[in-house]
Design goal:
By secondary structure, the chain is an alpha+beta fold. The protein has seven helices and three strands; from the N terminus they run E-E-E-H-H-H-H-H-H-H.
Amino acid sequence: MPNYDFICQRCQKRLVKFLTYAEYGNKSVDCPYCGSDEVARHITRARIARSEDIHLENSGEFSSPESMAQMEQNPQALGRMMRRMSSELGEEMEPEFNEVVNRLEKGQSPDEIEKDLPDYTGGKGFASGDNADLE
């Protein structure tokens, strides 16, 4: 059964009522706090679940080949993009990821980071196109 949100017009309290589709609009709803039958339907915000692909598509900097090419030349921009992508995906990243992003944001080149953290990059480098070890 779906639950419907209402607001009592007398005491202004919010209430949730479980009604079948057949009952909605046909069964009276009373406020459990003050007993009033003067309740109005309260439409709540809808949440829309979006896939990771939609999150990335809505952020032009992740999907534009031109902007991605520019980031290869700018470690700080690459670090900001990686941090934002992590935030968009809503996943907790490993400490090594944060180490890489912090170094990029400070201007350290991906090649320097690869030399300092070969175990994390798998020795393949950031530009190899195979980032399976980073996932």
